[in-house]
Amino acid sequence: MKLERLRRVIVGLVLVCCISAGAQDKGNWRAASTTAKSTTGDVALFDEKLAINFSTFTIAPIRSLDQGEVSAVFDVDSSAGGTGSLYRLNIPATKKFLHKNSLCGSEDTQWMVTYVSGRSLQVAFFSGEKQPVFTLEAISNSTDLCGTFAYVR
Q1: 84: closest CA among 27, 35, 39, 122?
Q2: Could you say which residues form the signal peptide (predicted)?
Q3: How far apart, in whole angstroms, are the C-alpha atoms of residue 50 and residue 57?
Q4: Contact present, 29 and 51 (Cβ < 8 Å)
Q5: Of 39, 120, 136, 151, which has the maximum CB count within 10 A?
Q6: Phi and psi at residue 2, to the nearest 5°
Q7: Is the CB of residue 40 less than 8 Å from the CB of residue 97?
Q8: Distance from C-alpha of 17 to C-alpha of 26, rounded to nearest angstrom
């Protein structure tokens, strides 16, 4: 009887860990890269919101990305681990952040990709109505990739 109870506890803990692993990009992040420090400053991700420089925007999770797709966007080793996610959002081109910078120049920001590995977060923003294609060739020829930003906890 005690062995069965122990098994249930272990299974429950594993499930809790798996659920929380999918939400690793949630929380507060400090700007780490030059582009993040000069454009967005610190950011915060919540279930349905993105906060940049005291402004919040609604986000909708679209899907998880596989390691090959993450590698195409962020130039990370495909065996490095971590989790990548695609989000839909709408940040108007007229919205200015730090130093009067916008995310996508004169284009509205329509897509956000996140990649979490350990205590670091990388974010890429895309313009364009169509969902971005995440291959090396497509990303290197993309006119919709607005920029990539790095953050830490």
Answers
A1: 122
A2: 1-23
A3: 5
A4: no
A5: 151
A6: -65, -35
A7: yes
A8: 15
